[in-house]
Amino acid sequence: MVKLLPLILSVSMASASADSCAGSVVDQPGLQCSYCGAPAGRAPSSLGDVAATACSLCGLAQHLERPRINEEARLIWLPEMSQAALNVLVRRIHSGLRGLGERLETDVRPSLAVGERTLLYHGQQALLVRGREAEVRLGTSDPAELADALLRLSGAAVARRDALLGGVRILPMGRLFEGSEDIYPAIVDSWRQTAGHPPGGTV
Ligand SMILES: [Zn+2]
Known about the structure:
Elements: H1 13-16, E1 25-26, E2 43-44, H2 56-60, H3 69-72, E3 73-77, H4 83-99, H5 115-128, H6 131-138, H7 143-152, H8 155-159, H9 161-165, E4 168-172, E5 177-178, E6 181-182, H10 184-194
Antiparallel strand pairs: 1-2, 3-4, 5-6
Helix pairs in contact: 4-5, 4-10
The site of zinc ion has 9 residues, from helix 2.
């Protein structure tokens, strides 16, 4: 069994000096995310300069400097679950919503309040509520503010950031921008195809 790498919230200095997140999208067929162990699937190239193969969710956690990060994720306090485990859970929720033909944004209610849709929606809301605890502890639930703080940290403090951040996680919000386009639905489709489901659809 492949040993997974630790996933720690971070900023990319290379991306922080660029003023756009526009780039290309790469498919990673047959590759496994080095952080959460799930199939890596499709990912924007702007998330691809991390040290190892990453799925979009684990890449996002290492790119808090992204220009629209506050739309793509929120900070939550969830010490009982690692960021990698949370990403696996979010992947399942979003794959389920996509399979039911629902929108993926965390703040959008499903079209029908029945069955699995309700479970998936309330599962996400239970995670989102933990943003209040992040606000109490950090003074914010904006990932951009954490990114600014990380960019100002000394080298020694950066190395200790996992201990400093404690139970802070990012909750992916069902959007991922490449330029002005939300490419997250296509990314979820790539995960679902790996699992044997057709794109979009209602299976
Ligand atoms: Zn991953």
